[in-house]
Amino acid sequence: YVITNYPPVFIGLMSLFNSRESSSLLPGRLISMVSTLGVAAFIFLIVYENNKDKMAGFLAATLYLIFPYAFQWGGFMRVDNLALLFAVAALYILLHWREKKWVLIPTAILLTLAAYTRQSYLLATPFACGVYLLFKDWKRAFYLAGITLLLVGILFGIFMVTTDGGFWQHIGVANQNTFNWNTVENYFKDQLWDEYQILSLMTILFFLAGWRRIDEWKLVGPFLLGAIGSAITVGKIGSSVNYLLELCAAMALSAGLYFSFLRKEEREHPKWLSQPILQAVAVLLFAVAAFFQMRT
Q1: From residue 72, how far is each of 29, 30, 36, 78, 287 by CA, in Å?
Q2: pLDDT (tens digit, 9 = 90+) per residue, 226-280?
Q3: Whole-angstrom distance between the N-terminal and C-terminal Cα of the chain?
């Protein structure tokens, strides 16, 4: 078997296009590019879901795509974009078919695929799906957790047996690198806050003000928290900006949902939020945020 420090989904998918006699980076790059566009598409669908606001959906998708980390890493033969595609697909499917009993099965499958593409994706998206279901029906939250853990556990057992214990050795033990909090501070300050202050402020505003009035907050808010937790692992020696991709998606979703909320025709929030001048300022802020991201 091939030794790798990532789970096998991406490598297995690539193997369909390569052989022992010939191999190429192109299939992996194409998978990554398609996954990046797929992530943007699901971001659009999540924002569009309730208010049917195409402008807000396109805004959120565009904000994600013009993050330099998403744009640059979208062409690399890396596991990150495929894992994120599975993750946001799980979020959308759970949101769109939340009333259906069967939705737990495809959601759990996608969560498992994300985890076995990149192991750090066991954090943010499962946490978000679980919290969302706790708001809706706490029993289903435990059902989803049980199904997901069962799938992850069965596959883990199979991989451990077939690799004679090497699976955990290489994706777990071998990945326990030295951790430096100064690196975390530098990435969060230099790569996020300093470059994207407006978008960061919008994200904070969504998290603090949206929990009472935006239903999707119950899904995206926990996803944002989990993505922050996952991004903190950028402090490991050898990490790079790809550890911020999940957080970039969460920030784009937060901004898009809050923008959609401000544009919603029938609101329960104060009348001053309905003023055209305020909405014009909001549009201007989003345009400035997009402009500076494109410059970066």
Answers
A1: 11, 13, 10, 11, 21
A2: 999 999 999 888 788 889 999 999 999 999 999 898 877 555 555 555 556 666 6
A3: 41
Note whether 127 and 226 are within 8 A (CB). Answer: yes
Task: Output the CA angle 49-55-57, nearest 5 degrees.
Answer: 40
Residue for token digits 């996954």? Answer: 35
- Residue 128: count other Cβ atoms within 10 Å of its Cβ: 25
Strand partners, 236: 179
The whole-number pLDDT of residue 95 equals 96
Distance CA 113, CA 101 (A): 21
Nearest to 73, CA basis, from 292, 247, 242, 237? 242
Radius of gyration of the chain from its Cα atoms, rounded to whole angstroms? 20
Rounded to whole angstroms, the Cα distance separating 206 from 203 reads: 5
List all residues 6 or more positions away from 234 whose beta carbon is below 8 Å from its beta carbon: 183, 184, 187, 240, 241, 243, 244
Taking the C-alpha atoms of residue 117 and residue 242, their distance in angstroms, rounded to an integer, is 14
Say how many C-beta atoms besides its own lie within 10 A of residue 26's C-beta. Answer: 11
What is the separation of C-alpha 85 from the centre of its chain, rounded to a whole number of angstroms?
8
- Cα dihedral: 230, 285, 204, 243 (round 10): 10
Residue 135 in tokens: 């708001």
Taking every pair of Cα atoms in the chain, the longest distance, rounded to a whole number of angstroms, is 68
No. of helices (H) and no. of strands (E), the chain: 14, 0
Cα separation, 207 vs 221, whole angstroms = 6
